[in-house]
Design brief:
Beta-Lactamase; alpha/beta; five-stranded antiparallel sheet; single chain; Heat Shock Protein 90; 755 residues; Rossmann fold
């Protein structure tokens, strides 16, 4: 505790405190020893005086006791009143009965000062024990807080009796009580003396310590003051004068030497600083010029990307738009429908890539965003399988899917990222494989993560290249020969990492490669909208009693034609305009129910047009939907803020247009079931009537049991060119095979006859 208090004090106060504490401790010890010795000496003198006084009283009382004269004894005791310290005295005869007594005139007997009828009672109460006749002591003294009790035997001594009996005769007992006022007064005086001496010594010690500490603290505080001055003024030319003391002189010399070194360094730094300032000015000018060039390049890049977005989306809108229009043809056979589906799926995937590439905010931030949606992984695998089976057929490669997933749940993850990961891996596999097979294997890990293995029989990857293959622009000579950029696998790894997964590669030279992506795909908690589109089927026409008048505004004829044909097919009346000004003129002539408007147009663009529409036709409540091929993802909110009710990005899907009509105009549609679904239902109803050759049946059943997809497809191709029964069975099984529904295929084969 003392050390902690001293720790917080200055050096001056520490030295002062140490001197005072040491002086006070020595003084207190000296006074305490002297006081104790004085008290002990005084107490011994008091004991001796009381013993002498008691002996005198006993001598005077011996005669009265011997002759049985209490009156004389009372007279003798009355003389005690001249002694102020005597409180009371009681004389007992040899039988220990009260003979005579005395009490100070100013007092009276009480519970604390009793008159005792028997000596033993008094002795027992004050001595704490019974009186022992054989005790060799002639008297006993007992000190209390405010008095002393003295017990003494009274004897009569005679010369003749001493010769006859050899010892004095016991004639009685004395009990004497004396106060300690004088003793207490001496203690008070002694205590006061000690306090006065202590205070005087404390003041003297403080004065002495205050002067002595300056011998040590003077040089220290002088040095400290110099340090503060140097620190405040940053003037390293200041020096501290050296004191007479050798130790402090060494300390000050070291401090002054340190200041000399700092002064030299400060001079050097100032020289460097002046040179550096000049260099910084030159470098700042260079950086400013480089910054301006970078800003100009970045602005040019933004303009280029915006223009490219429009240029790429416009033909993509035509490709996907006409693919959707052709799919509405009910006279398509299954092969034609599947081909159109592949075109549409591939175009949609390409559109997703364009969206990622053209999203300036993501590119400049160096990060991608996950866009979670609900999907079935088996549906994704089926679409990818259709795409790559055709590519493998073109290179005469065997395409095989090994899917161990059964009854997969609805997932809620970024389907676009997963699709691009698989397409990148499979695309590389097909690109670098000249013969053999491509295998896509899907399974679940023990942690319930989805594992995708892409296996090829290509030329393989060297061990050195495997360590660099996921880095940007890293590829072997074969990659350059094939026209690759070296970014595909780098982007793939980045997307896998973004989905909290991992990707690995194993390969042997001339034996092929295996890329493995393990990705956690969370399940969807809401399955209410799994098959809404399948239940409704394809939009056929506006429901009876509903009519819609639409205005299409776009400067590109093909875009207007696609949207117009789409709307006309479902019974919507349309008008067309090539720019915003024409649109406003037509609205003034006849108000439409809904306006589909492009953003980038000559004369008047979509943003300016919507502002005029909102201002001029605010009371008409016209629904306006923006359809743009030049708008990036993060810019759609700006378009909505301008006044549009909804935003559709080109290329668009018909369902998005129909959904706008339903949401904003509250119209209803009639739906028709898909032709392919009806075909399967009809075929399922007549499957028991089919009969095929036994050899084909056994081969087909064995391939289904072993999930040999390629073998089954080969058999189905043969059956498709055979008789009517085999053709109808091939159509049924092909539908289930497209969904990798092996169990349903086996159930169908159980009902088929063979011969």
């Amino acid at each position: 505790m003392i050390m902690r208090l001293l720790h917080n004090l200055s050096i001056k106060n520490k030295l002062r405190a140490i001197i005072i504490v040491v002086s006070m401790v020595i003084l207190i010890l000296s006074i305490s020893i002297s006081a104790v010795l004085d008290i002990m000496s005084y107490k011994e003198r008091l004991r001796s005086n009381l013993d002498t006084f008691a002996s005198l009283i006993a001598i005077n009382a011996a005669g009265a006791l011997l002759f049985g004269d209490p009156a004389t004894s009372y007279e003798n005791l009355a003389q005690l009143q001249v002694k102020e310290s005597i409180i009371s005295a009681q004389i007992f005869d040899v039988s220990k009965n009260l003979f005579s007594d005395y009490i100070h005139p100013g007092l009276k007997y009480s519970n604390t000062n009793k008159k005792y009828a028997h000596f033993n009672s008094a002795y027992r109460e004050h001595a704490g024990q019974d009186f022992n006749e054989s005790d060799s002591m002639k008297e006993h003294q007992h000190f209390h807080a405010d008095h002393v009790d003295t017990f003494k035997k009274i004897v009569f001594s005679s010369q003749n009796k001493s010769e006859e009996f050899g010892e004095p005769e016991l004639v009685g007992y004395l009990y004497l009580r004396t106060d300690l006022k004088e003793y207490h007064q001496r203690l008070y005086i002694l205590a006061a003396t000690v306090i006065i001496l202590a205070i005087s010594s404390l003041l003297f010690s403080f004065i002495l310590a205050s002067n002595l500490q300056k011998i040590i603290t003077g040089p220290v505080y002088g040095l400290l003051a110099t340090m503060r001055t140097v620190s405040r003024k940053r003037d390293y030319t200041i020096r501290e004068p050296e004191p007479d003391d050798r130790e402090f002189a060494s300390l000050v010399a070291g401090f002054n030497d340190m200041l000399s070194q700092i002064e030299a360094r400060e001079t050097t730094l100032k020289h460097y600083h002046s040179q550096l300032e000049e260099k910084v000015k030159v470098r700042t000018a260079e950086l400013a010029e480089a910054r301006d060039q970078a800003l100009a390049a970045n602005k040019a890049k933004s303009i280029f990307l915006a223009n490219m977005s429009h240029e790429i989306r416009t033909p993509m809108n035509a490709v996907l738009g006409y693919a959707q229009i052709l799919k509405r043809d009910t006279e398509l056979n299954q092969s034609q429908y599947d081909t159109l589906q592949i075109i549409e799926d591939s175009g949609t995937h390409l559109l997703g890539l364009i969206n990622d590439i053209l999203d300036i905010s993501k590119i400049e931030a160096g990060a991608m965003e996950l866009r979670a949606e609900k999907f079935q992984v088996n549906d994704l695998i089926h679409n990818i399988s259709l795409m790559f089976k055709m590519r493998c057929d073109e290179k005469k490669l065997t395409w095989r899917v090994e899917n161990s997933l059964v009854d997969t749940p609805l997932l809620h993850a970024d389907q676009g990222k997963l699709r691009q990961i698989l397409i990148n891996l499979l695309g590389n596999a097909v690109k670098f494989t000249e013969e053999g097979e491509i295998v896509l294997r899907i399974s679940l890990t023990p942690e319930q993560h989805y594992r995708f293995d892409v296996i090829d029989t290509g030329q393989g990857i060297s061990p050195a290249q495997q360590a660099l293959i996921f880095e940007p622009f890293q590829q072997e000579k074969a990659g350059y020969d094939k026209g690759g950029t070296g970014l595909g696998l780098a982007i793939t790894k980045r997307q896998v990492d973004l989905m909290n997964g991992r990707i690995e590669v194993s390969s042997e030279h001339n034996k092929g490669s295996c890329f493995t992506a393990i990705i956690p795909l969370p399940e969807s908690e809401d399955e209410s909208d799994i098959v809404v589109e399948q239940v409704k089927g394809q939009v056929s026409h506006l429901a009876q009693g509903y009519s819609v008048n639409a205005l299409i505004v776009d400067d590109v004829q093909e875009n207007r034609d696609i949207l117009a044909k789409m709307l006309i097919d479902v019974g919507v009346s349309i008008r067309e305009a090539e720019n915003g000004q024409e649109a406003i003129n037509q609205i003034q002539c006849e108000k439409p129910d809904i306006v589909f408007m492009d953003i980038r147009m000559p004369v008047m663009d979509g943003i300016m047009a919507i502002k005029h529409i909102v201002t001029q036709f605010a009371d008409n409540d016209i629904t306006c939907v923006a359809i743009s091929a030049s708008t990036l993802h993060h810019q759609s909110q700006n378009i909505l803020d301008a006044g549009f009710h909804a935003f559709i990005s080109k290329p668009f899907r018909f369902e998005m247009v129909y959904d706008c009509l339903v949401e904003y105009l509250n119209v209803k549609f009639d739906y028709e079931e898909l032709k392919q679904l009806n075909d399967v239902i009809e075929n399922e109803l007549s499957v028991s009537d089919l009969c095929i050759p036994q050899e084909i049946y056994k081969s087909l059943y064995s391939a289904a049991e072993l999930s040999e997809i390629t073998e089954m497809e080969s058999l189905l191709e043969t059956m498709a060119n055979s008789d009517q029964h085999q053709q109808r069975l091939a159509q049924i099984i092909q539908k289930f095979l497209g969904d990798y529904d092996i169990d349903s295929i086996l159930e169908v084969l159980e009902d088929v006859g063979y011969e």
